[in-house]
Amino acid sequence: MTVDAPAKPTANPNAPFYRLGGAPVFEAICNRFYDLMEQDPAYAELRAMHAPDLAPMRESLPKFLAGWAGGPRDWFEANPGRCMMSIHKPFTITKDTAGQWAEAMERAIADVAPEPADMAKAMGEVLGDLARGMGR
Ligand code: HEM
């Protein structure tokens, strides 16, 4: 008897995406992140690098982070071959703007305060380190 492989890998319920609360939590974090970017003058330089309309990024970043955190990979399937390098190549990311991204994301995660808190904090630190590592 042959057993058909599933069309897609089965979701791992232990992945951070699911443990932290799934799509509603990732959407809340990204909305808070872009709210901070729009409202707090400390992130004005970062804001100015983005398109005038942040609505597409409010859609896109939570989907990217979902796949990155072990959840649904729709963004990656819709964007074959796109990676962090190719996305950000057109932009000059300074240490300042990288630090603004990292701080706004760490704040957004802290404000949404998903559980488990230690996993949420760890995700903020990893994203913060990733962003700071992109600054030149
Ligand atoms: C280090 C500082 C960073 C800066 C200054 C930055 C800046 C930008 C800018 C200007 C865009 C284009 C969006 C627009 O024009 O509105 C963009 C796109 C994007 N960024 Fe960043 N970014 C940074 C870090 C990150 C990090 C750490 C991640 C993810 C972990 C990330 C994920 C993305 C994604 C997924 C897109 C494209 C989304 C899409 O087109 O579907 N960025 N970024």
Automatic annotation (TrEMBL):
InterPro entries: Globin-like_sf, Globin/Proto, Globin_bac-like_CS, Hemoglobin_trunc. Pfam families: Bac_globin. CDD domains: TrHb2_PhHbO-like_O (cd14773). Its cofactor is heme. Keywords: Heme, Iron, Metal-binding, Transport. The keyword Plastid does not apply. SUPFAM superfamilies: Globin-like. The keyword Methyltransferase does not apply. Transmembrane segments: none annotated. It comes from the Bacteria. PROSITE patterns: GLOBIN_FAM_2 (PS01213). This is Globin.
